[in-house]
Amino acid sequence: MVKFGGKFAALTLSMNGSEGVLYTTEIRKMTTVYKKWGYRMKKLPLQKAFTFLEPGPVVLVTTADKDKLNVMTISWTMVLDFTPRFAFMTGSWNFSYKSLIKNRECVIAIPTVEYLKKTVQIGSISGAKIDKFKKFKLSPLEAASVKSPLIKECYANIECKIIDYIQKHNIFILEAIEAWVDDSNKAPRFFHAVGDGRFIVDGEKVNHRRIMMDKIPSGV
Description:
Distance between the termini: 56 Å
Number of domains: 2
CATH architecture of the largest domain: Roll
Structural class: alpha+beta
CATH topology of the largest domain: Pnp Oxidase, Chain A
Shape: globular
Order of helices and strands: EEHEEEEHEHHEEEEEEH
Number of strands: 13
């Protein structure tokens, strides 16, 4: 056992000792950081960095190509400005991709925590050969300005036009043209993907509107 920052780290040696050498090297790196900053700061594997920046909430994106409706789960979304414009990332590995490129429109539907497991399941299979609306008992509703359907079971639905596609990074830029909300749900709770199979559910809301009033557009 090796004492480090007030705690103990176990060294595990393989038969040839290589695993132990690597682990010892990592301990030395962390020890150096600890001494330099004056407090314990463990080195994080770089591939885990994104889990601290994961946006939310997890959304469902619907598309329509002729008579074929589809829905996919997206966790990598972002707000670009107050106009409102949004972005999400997806690529040719998703069945909906061709419809997004061809028809340049979609609906972003925001499910509540009651649909967390179903949302994950929707994102775990392809709509190439099945009707995901039927399989998951979702109710498509006719949208006002796009052919892609709203989802009745979702708290909010945002009709969008695709105004740009950054192919290098598989990023779609969207402009919202209609938005709908189920105001019968007085306390909706959404969920956010950590990125490693775990999810965080909305908790307490803290209001600091008074501090930010000069930065918040009228009507928000």
